[in-house]
Write a structure and sequence with these properties.
The protein has 324 residues and is an alpha+beta fold. 33% of the residues lie in helices and 19% in strands. The strands form four sheets. Strands 5-7-3-8 form a four-stranded antiparallel beta sheet. The radius of gyration is 23 Å and the shape is elongated. The relative contact order is 0.24.
Length: 324
């Protein structure tokens, strides 16, 4: 073994990783003392054939938008048209958050976004990505953007807002004529450099309060932020990434794509800030693995070559000056 290894096993990512940040903070100068670099394999290739290294993740701010009306659910035949309905208010407010081209409607939300540089524009050239393959994975062409690089930019480096569901409303099969007394809409906003979660929350809450006031409704509206994970961005020129690139080229015979991810892996930033070292995201899975979906898989090729890649990476780390 060419290097000393310290493992951090964590199996609660899909349930919030409760306690993980606190453990890393507490053990930074104990168990993790002397760590030079960190490597995480928890994301995916851009396509299905060409490997990549990932140097950026978006953050995520999650919100609950609650509208409360009467003290109990009502019958629409008796009360329809005579009361301010919480669901009507909620649908109106949710529709005001984002347009059908994906642009967030919250004023000021784009002001903090890092501009696209000429150097960044060049990184979108030659990537293993196509709208044809994406539409195939989606099982239908519902892609918003005409240019492939614009699709990647909106996946990686621009903020996006998605509406996820409504709690408290009727959703079972069949018909029901209830007017729900309280409903809660759920949406999230993916953040990017250089957006600050506190500012994002401030802008979102102010906008929704202003829009609700325009309705003249007698209902009560509340915005609750339930999570605020920050974005992460690193230089692909760091020696840790150089080692990862060399290892990938040795195993796969091709230089890896340099990518960013639209999703969030909060522990990446926790390691970087508490240990004061560079973090490399070294993906093993392919884009069609079906992450978080039914029948999630990993191809035999990726599994076997991934074992080789981790071994090669450790040897390259040992041969590379991490202080350069």
């Amino acid at each position: 073994m060419p290097v000393n290894l310290k493992f951090c096993w964590e199996g609660m990512e899909e349930s919030g990783s409760e306690g993980l940040d606190a453990i890393i903070e507490a053990e930074a100068d104990k168990w993790f003392k002397g760590t030079d670099v960190v490597c995480i394999s928890d994301n995916y290739w851009l396509g299905t054939k060409k490997p990549c290294l990932t140097h950026g993740l978006r953050g995520v701010s999650y919100f609950h938008l609650q509208v409360e009306g009467p003290g109990a659910d009502l019958h629409s035949g008796v009360f329809g048209g005579t009361v301010h309905e919480p669901m009507v208010d909620l649908v109106h407010l949710l529709a005001k958050l984002v347009d059908n081209s994906g642009r967030i409607q919250v004023p000021g939300i784009y002001d903090q976004v890092m501009p696209v540089s000429e150097a960044e524009e060049r990184t979108y050239e030659g990537l293993e990505f196509s709208h044809t393959a994406l539409a195939s994975d989606l099982k239908r062409d519902v892609i918003i953007h005409a240019e492939e690089r614009d699709t990647l930019k909106h996946r990686w480096r621009f903020p996006t807002l998605s509406i996820h569901g409504v709690e408290g409303a009727f959703y079972a099969p069949g018909d029901k004529t209830v007017i729900p007394a309280r409903v809660r809409g759920k949406f999230s906003l993916r953040t990017v450099p250089n957006m600050e979660p506190e500012k994002v929350a401030q802008l979102v809450k102010r906008y929704l309060q202003d829009e609700f006031a325009k309705l003249g409704s007698k209902n009560k509206m509340t915005v609750i932020e339930t999570h605020a994970g920050r974005w992460w961005y690193s230089s692909p020129n760091h020696p840790n990434f150089v080692a990862g690139s060399r290892a990938t080229e040795k195993v796969y015979g091709v230089k890896p794509d340099l990518t960013r991810e639209g999703g969030s892996i909060p522990v990446t930033l926790t390691f970087e800030e508490n240990l004061g070292v560079n973090v490399l995201l070294l993906p093993m899975g392919a884009a069609d693995d079906g992450a978080h979906s039914i029948n999630e898989k990993i191809d035999k090729r990726n599994y076997i070559q991934g074992i080789k890649l981790l071994g090669a990476y450790l040897h390259e780390v040992a041969a590379t000056d991490m202080t350069a």
